[in-house]
Amino acid sequence: MEFVSSRLNVLKVKADVLVIGIFKGQRYSGALKTIDGSLAGALKNISEEERFEGDVGKSLMLSSTFGKIGSKRVLMVGLGEKAEFSANTLRKIGSLVINKVKSLSSVVAFSSEFSASPGYISALTQGLLLGSYDFNKYKSGNSDSNKVERVVFVSNRVKESTLKEETNFAGVVSESVNLARDLVNEPPMYLTPSKLAEVASQVAREAGIDCEIFDYAEIEKRGMNGLMAVSSGSEEPPRFIHLTYKPPRKARRSIAVVGKGITFDSGGLCLKPPDSMRTMKMDMGGSAVVLGVMKAIAVLRPSVTVHGLIAASENMTGAKAYKPDDVIRAYNGKTIEVINTDAEGRIVLSDALSYAVELKVDEIVDLATLTGACMVGLGSYTAGVMGNSQKLIDKIREASDCVGEKTWQLPMDDELRAEIKSNVADIKNVGSRMGGAITAAMFLENFVADVPWAHIDIAGPAFMEKDSSFSPKGGTGFGVRTIIKYITGK
Question: How far is CA 434 from the centre of its chain?
């Protein structure tokens, strides 16, 4: 898509669709009144007939303007309550609009309220680019269903430099989110640990950042026994991936972003039932976030050293698969009693987090589709956040609020620690069903030493089972925008 601005009167702008926004309960005034007047009150009449009141997520199309204004059609979109309006509202609206017009428009124009404040263009553009995403590479005769080629922001106040800066940023972020979506949506027969490592190498090569891949021999040599154990039931060898971005000037701080990379999870010998096994291609959602973040960071160039770490494996049921009652010595030397082989993500993360500590970073953030318990507690749209640093947790949650990715802090309740105490090892990999998301985080805490650390359980929002007005079915890329915002402040 090409993004341009126009200083023409909104009535004269040539477009297939002119998009105008209306707040809930708003009287017809300004540009809205002018457009409606030129259309002999058609917008007001159809709004009353359809009981369109301006709620977010609602829209109304006037299918023809009969040549009375420059645009062929008018799409009215609800902006919701004025007091609650934000850049996140515009991000949602962008997604809604593109799905309404992508099959019938090559030029879409937005009236001036969509570019009235700094950040509005960026948010709306992100919505348009993310909303146009479609994973159709395996469909016969697939083609791009989006016909929109040009987006026009109608305003006499938008500077070209502002337009370029905001749309470029939106493009970088959206490309990174869509990379994460692509990876999550890939069938597991194609996205193996080795293939994920190839993608990481390609991202690093294109971005000009460092990349180190550990094969099975190197993983074994280094004593990453958690990763080795989980991969033991699969014919696909594991991979450990380390990407490094170094800023052009002195770094203000360093951070490790760690992702769970289980490219398919059968549950291992504690086999999942068939319905639960379906969609388990998404169990590498945390690793997809890491690659999306590293792709963006290399372009945005913050003065922060960023390490992207991924422990990649399948969790299968082969003859050599690890078993309940096994004891594993993790990378940092702590021993793990295996209670359930379907709690494998935390086992591979034990090695990755221990490795991050050795890098002497200032902070560690991990993202993982870790527990069904988090979904039970928070639903499908909200990630759970836990950790050992309230300051870091607060910053992560502030970033997530800014970009519209829902997070909620769960308590690291000391009474629950007994759930993962083992009689035969330092720790066991799972406790009872009660507080399962929290005890999983407590397990991970054993491998971060005293480094400030935040854990984001994205099991719910990483993958959508059905389309919504604002998100497509499948991988969502949830977490990419939050971490970019946290690291860059943008």
Answer: 28
Per-residue tokens: 31? 């540009």
- Exactly one of 73, 91, 346, 481 is catalytic; name it: 346
Residue whose pair of structure tokens reads 């959206």 in the numeric block: 174
> How confident is the model over 379-415, as pLDDT tens digits?
999 999 999 999 999 999 999 999 999 999 999 999 9
Q: Catalytic: 14?
A: no
| Cα–Cα dist 111/234, whole Å | 55
From the list 132, 129, 154, the residue with the least C-alpha distance to 17 is 154
Residues 362-370 have a mean pLDDT of 98
Cβ(375)–Cβ(457) under 8 Å? no
Is 272 catalytic? The answer is yes
Confidence (pLDDT) at 472: 80
Residue appearing with tokens 């169990």 = 283
- Whether residue 81 is contained in a domain is answered as yes
Q: How many domains, the chain?
A: 2
Residues 39 and 151 grouped into a single domain = yes
Catalytically annotated residue among 44, 272, 406, 490: 272
User: Which residue is listed with tokens 């609009």?
Assistant: 97
Asked if residue 168 belongs to a domain, the reply is: no
Structural domain span for residue 30: 2-155
Give the SS3 label for residue 348: helix
